[in-house]
Amino acid sequence: MAQYGYFDDAHREFVITRPDTPLPWLNMLGQDEFYGLCTQTAGGYSFWKDARLRRLTRYRYNNNPMDNDGRFLYVKQGKSVWSPGWKPVRTKLDAYECRHGLGYTRIKGRKDGVEVEQLMFVPPQENLEIWKIYVRNKTKKTQKLTLFSFVEFCFFEALNDMTNYQRTYSIGEVEIEGSGIYHKTEYRERRNHYTLFGCTRKVDGYDTSRDAFVGVHHGLHDPKAVFAGKCTNSHAYGWNPVGAHQINLTLKPGAEETFAFVLAYVEQGDLPKFDAPFVMNKTKGREILKKYSDLAAVDAAFASVKQRWEDLLSIYQSPDVPNEHLRRMVNTWNQVQCMATFNLSRASSGYETGIGRGMGYRDSNQDILGFVHLLPERARQRILDIASTQLSDGTCFHQYQPLTKKGNADIGGGFNDDPLWLILSTAAYIRETGDTSILDEPCGYADKPGSKDTLLHHIETSVSYTLNNRGPHGLPLIGHADWNDCLNLNCFSKEPNESFQVTGDIAGSKAESVMIAGLFLYAARDLAALYRFMGKADDAARIDGHYADMLKTVEEQAWDGAWYTRAFDAAGNPVGSKSCKEGKIFIESQAWCVLGGAGQTNGRARKALQAVAKYLYTPEHGCALQYPPYSEYHLELGEVSSYPPGYKENAGVFSHNNTWIHIGWTMFGEGDKALEYYLSICPSAKKDHDKYRSEPYVYAQMTASQFSPTPGEGKNSWLTGTSAWSFVTASQSILGVQPEFTGVKVDPCIPKKWKGYTVQRKFRGVTYTIEVKNPKGKSKGVKSLLVDGAKVAGNIVPPPTDGRKTVQVEVILGA
Ligand code: BGC
Ligand code: NOJ
Question: Is any ligand 1 atom within 6 A of the Cβ of residue 702?
Answer without folding.
Answer: no
